[in-house]
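Bumping with the actual sequence this time:
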Amino acid sequence: MTDIQNANRRLLAIQRTLAASGSWRRVLVLPDDARVDVSETQDPSQPTQVAIDGKVVGLYRTLPRSLALVISAVGTPHEHSAEHVPKFPLLEILAPAAADADAPATISIPDLWAIIYTLHTLLHTQETIPIVLSPAIKNAAELSTYLLHSGLARKRHTLPEDTSSAAEPEHFLLRQTFWQGAGTVSYHTRGWLRGHLAFMASAPFPYTQSFTRTPLVIAAHPLRPPKPRQGEVLYRRYIPTLGQMLEFTYFDLDLEGERPTVECEGEQVSPHLAAFHRWHNSDHVNRGWGERGPLQKHRAYVQALMADPGTMPVIMSWDGELMGYAEFVYIKENHVAAYVPGGAWDYDRGLHVLVGEQKFRGIHRSKAWFSAIHHALFLCDARTERVIGEPKLANAAVIKLSEDVAMNVNTVFDFPYKRSAMTWLPRERFFKYDVLSFWEDKDSPARK
């Protein structure tokens, strides 16, 4: 029997064992569709195993110590009395060999990221997770370098002349940097950004000035990057409280009929256009958007956005089922820029959204996709410092939703056609707060 056959046989045996044990629970589905499960043990002294697609890739256990990441008090009389800084239990990360002597004594970079993703999901209320890498992990030095160089973790804070923390085994995993995509782009392909957006995040589009002149806008602004391919997946994230994968895809008009089509008003059109047309002709969408009309009107509407360098039309879906539409915009060349107090910045982003399918409405789903849009906008360009919205002032539901994802109402202003609230979301606030885990939520179906 070959080594590959032996390996496959062993993997199948592990998968059968996991399936039969009944002591595992699903935590995540990664953006590459790999399933992440953790073992459930009644003995707290036993480590928790983390498995990806049935194969144990690592373990973690709680050590009898708690640590706080004290920063501003270091070097002051308050350094050892900063009780306001929360302490969290120290975890030890172990290789699969800790559970099975025949298993690897190493952890790969993509698998370590998945373990960290699991920890930030289960321990989502912790702004830091103190860890040590077991000295039995053969590539522990490589993993430590990855954690520190990617920004996923840091060492204890010290004064500049004190380098003692460099030799200490403790690392502090940072929730704020994890959700900013630390350790994903350029390291592996398991991150939330996919395709075009992942590429743009790995190589930010260089700055050079461009200009927009329209009946509504006269503005100098950075040249914007080219658009994705039609139908390209841009972002994927599993929402644990719903057990579904949220996906954003660049709008696909498919004018050449190269992909499967559906019938709409006597024509064969892309599923995206058919859904977009149907949604805009529904009463609940038309009340907010006012774009009811024939198929040709909606085709032309999307074509105009695709030709606009400052706007990206996106279709949203749950587990591949189309559910809504969004427009990702650059604020500086958008007509709302004239109303931004202090002026729009070069990489400010904005959004317009609709949920077309009634069964996908509701506060919990709305918080999931709304926060995910902001997540995608911040991830795809580190120069984006804020996302700005302009819902109708009378739309209390959208303003409440905005506040639920950490936005605030900055001001109130009048367009020629509506009175709006201007909502703001600074990057620092969005990633500092516990907005994205969705492991538990008072509004979720799992908690009712």
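The tokens above came from a reply further down the thread. The two ends are 52 Å apart (CA to CA).
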